[in-house]
Design goal:
Endonuclease III, domain 1; single chain; Endonuclease Iii, domain 2
Length: 241
């Protein structure tokens, strides 16, 4: 039995947001452990967020966080430090994140851009208008749409809704109609219904990810007792309701 597709309204998105926040509390994402954003040296600014967004690709946040901790402990902290460190040393430092050879190249590519084009400060990059910033980020090796939007939303503090596998999973299970299957199609479902709001967009993305990790699993989702069950046709099918 297939799930009937529906077209969500703004109120549907806000209902999901409200229920998840009431259930789980605010996540206040993106977590910055080694110094509050904006208080570090000029060359590190949003470095922890940028590095985390690269390191978390194709792995869990726990693994990425361990790699960030190793980088901090080793003193490989900031764009200049990443730019100057030999690749072999960085590879060993971020090994816990998986795909460490590729991620080393991605970190160094980003650092090179900041050091050589933006005087070592990501603030200079983040001054670009949103469309120009997104375009520039996507031109950097290893920065895809999801990573670019993570950086824009959480580090540059500009509204660009983040789409990931967790968000796609929730949208599909809720039976929400999407005009296409591309990243931009799913992104438009949110951005066309919700006014640009850094706090709301950042928290909603974090809540969706947290819900997917705890409840809405890829296999064997915990539909019984899910706070979204009455809104979710997939959940109702799974529970026989």
């Amino acid at each position: 039995m297939s799930v009937k597709m529906t077209v969500p309204a703004r109120s549907d998105l806000l209902e999901i947001y409200d229920r998840l926040v009431r259930k789980n509390g605010r996540r206040n994402w993106w977590p910055v452990k080694y110094g509050k954003y904006g208080t570090a040296r000029a060359d590190t600014g949003g470095f922890e967020i940028v590095a985390g967004a690269i390191l978390v690709q194709n792995t869990t946040w726990k693994n990425a966080e361990r790699a960030l901790g190793n980088m901090h402990t080793a003193g490989i902290w900031g764009y200049r430090a990443v730019h100057e460190i030999p690749e072999t040393a960085l590879v060993e430092t971020i090994r816990s994140s998986g795909y460490y050879n590729t991620k080393t190249k991605k970190l160094k590519a980003f650092a090179e851009v900041i050091v050589k084009e933006y005087a070592g400060s990501d603030a200079n990059l983040f001054e670009l208008e949103l469309a120009d910033l997104r375009h520039r980020l996507l031109d950097i090796y290893g920065i895809g749409e999801e990573t670019a939007d993570d950086i824009i939303l959480y580090a540059a503090k500009k509204p660009s809704f983040v789409i990931d596998a967790y968000t796609r999973r929730l949208v599909d299970r809720l039976g929400w109609h999407v005009d296409g299957s591309r990243y931009s199609d799913y992104q438009r479902l949110f951005s066309s219904r919700l006014e640009p709001d850094l706090e709301l967009w950042g928290e909603l993305h974090a809540q969706i990810d947290g819900h997917a990790v705890r409840v809405c699993h890829k296999l064997d989702p915990l539909c019984h007792g899910c706070v979204l069950l009455d809104l979710c046709p997939t959940g109702r099918l799974n529970t026989g309701q």
